[in-house]
Every structure is written in C-alpha cells, then in structure tokens.
Design brief:
- α2 crosses α3.
- By secondary structure, the chain is α/β, with parallel strands linked by helices.
- Helix content is 37%, strand content 24%.
- β5, α4 and β6 form a beta-alpha-beta unit.
- Strands 6-5-4-7-8-11-10 form a seven-stranded mixed β-sheet, with helices on both faces. Strands 1-2-3-9 form a four-stranded antiparallel β-sheet, with no helix packed on it.
- It is globular and about 50 Å long.
- It contains eleven helices and eleven strands.
- It has a single domain, classed as Vaccinia Virus protein VP39 (Rossmann fold, 3-Layer(aba) Sandwich).
Length: 284
C-alpha cells in the first residue's frame, strides 16, 4: 500500500484518512504495522460481535447449500457458528485472535483456533471450506485486498465467501452530521483502518476475483439518531434501540424466515444500513 494516494478526508490522531485512488476505499495513511495491530487485538479488544443477523446468513446459505464445512474468521465468541450448528449438517471451525473470546467459543464445543490471519494461511494451507464467513474483519486489517485474494484458495468449488463490514459515510450518517454540526463519530483508530460503502466494497470484491451472488444490509441504526433517540449523546439509549430492532426482526422471522433478508436487500440498494453484507463466489 506504499503507492496509496488520494483525497484527504480528515486527520485523526496524527494520521490521515484518504479516499484512496488505488484501493478505491477510504483508509488510514500511513498504515499501522501488522505486529502492533495483532498485539492490540490479542489483549485489549473487547467489543462483542455487533451484528444480530446470524439467522439471515444461515437462511441465505441454506438456499443453495444444506450442509458442508464452514469457517468463521474472527468468530469472536462463536455466535454465528452456533446458528449453523443448530440447524445441523455443518462442520464448524473458527479463528479468533482475542484469547478470552476464543476460550468462550471453545466452551461451547466449537473448534476455534487462536491464530492470526498470517498463521491461519500457513496452518490451513490446502484446506477447503464450502462457506467462509468474514464478518467485521476487513475494516481492521492493513491489506483487505491481499486477504480476499488469498481466501479464494480456501474455498471449495462453488464455495461462498460472506463479507460483512460497517457501512460508513452513509447518507444517514452524513445527514446526522449536517444536522448536528458534528465530526464523523465512527472513526476509531487503530482498530478501524478501512471504511467502506457499497460501491467501494463491491469494487474490492470484483478486483480480487469474485462475483457477487447476493447483497443485503443490516438495520440502519442511524434512524434512531435522526428520529431524536440520540444514543451518541445519551449512550444508555443505545441498548434500548438495539433491543427494539432485535425484537422487530424476531417477529418478522417468525412470520416469514426470509422476510428480514428481503427487506434488507432493498435497503442495500440505497446504500442504507448499519452494515453491508456480500455473498461472493470466487473464480480461479
């Protein structure tokens, strides 16, 4: 990434965020070294998996694959893999750099390896998976392009790579900033190095040898900010807002298991949603 250059977006903590003409997404510059990032995540990173849409991934995958091997990279406490175990037919493996989270996942009898991405590539060379879940990983690593390129070699024929990232600099976020006169609140260094929207994420997928099978978003939590439930100014409100979304999604799933996915696929088209999810198929 030494040749990266582009429009300056903002400066935080002595580093620039640029809209990179080479990478085609926003990222920090200069980039952090891999060693300092691994040390940071092994001991101090304490955020739980931010997506509740585990059921939608199972539903979408099982439309074409009822069983097989699934790998969850950065599986945290194993919540996504639990959903695949629940429906049956899946051999589940996870990797997780955070020691405590990996131990929690193992306590659920999930096969979890406490290794870095580089260690994973070496240790599992030659292994193939029918599904690889890569949720909330690309924003944290120095070289998303390199990782996606390497993961093609770990997918079985017709395998599916699920990529999920935060949707940043979205229309709802920018509208909130304009209304409040605030600076971007979602910039978090050194953990979030890269910032994607639907266009830049799709460009990254295509440039690394994938075709896109399906697109969807997750619920746009920024709606609460725009409606006056400002969980940034009053953080305890955030938990209540999140619980409302989880309750709504549960009711919709009980009525129709695919309804949440279909609704969020429509939100994706407008680049609206707290996160973006792509289902990809790699090509040799």
């Amino acid at each position: 990434m030494g040749s990266c250059q582009g429009e300056l977006v903002l400066v935080r903590e002595g580093r620039s965020l640029i809209r990179c003409a080479t990478c085609q997404y926003i990222h920090v510059d200069p980039m952090y070294e891999a060693e300092e990032l691994e040390a940071f995540y092994r001991g101090s990173y304490g955020e739980s998996t931010p997506s509740p849409n585990w059921a939608e991934k199972v539903w979408n995958v099982r439309r074409s694959k009822k069983e097989g091997r699934i790998l969850d990279i950065g599986c945290w406490e194993g919540r996504q893999l639990e959903e695949f175990i629940r429906v049956g037919g899946w051999e589940c493996t996870g990797t997780e750099l955070n020691v405590r989270a990996a131990e929690v996942a193992r306590s659920k009898s999930i096969d979890v390896h406490n290794v870095s991405l580089n260690e994973f590539v070496e240790r599992f060379r030659g292994e193939l998976w029918d599904v690889i879940n890569l949720a909330y990983v690309l924003e944290h690593i120095p070289d998303p392009r390199g990782l996606l390129t390497r993961l093609r070699g770990f997918l079985a024929p017709n395998g599916i790579l699920i990529v999920e990232v935060p949707n940043e600099f979205s229309p709802f976020q920018m509208a909130y900033l304009k209304a409040k006169g605030r600076e971007p609140y979602w910039i978090a260094l050194p953990d979030h190095l890269n910032y994607f929207d639907s266009a830049s994420l799709e460009a990254l997928a295509r440039n690394t040898g994938y075709s896109i099978l399906h697109r969807e978003a997750t619920f746009p939590m920024e709606l609460f900010l725009l409606m006056g439930d400002d969980y940034l100014e009053d953080p305890p409100i955030g938990k209540s807002c999140f619980q409302k979304v989880v309750r709504m999604e549960g009711i919709l799933r009980d009525y129709d298991p695919g309804l949440v996915s279909r609704i969020y696929a429509e939100l994706y088209k407008a680049n609206v949603g707290r996160a973006l999810v792509l289902y990809l198929q790699g090509h040799p």
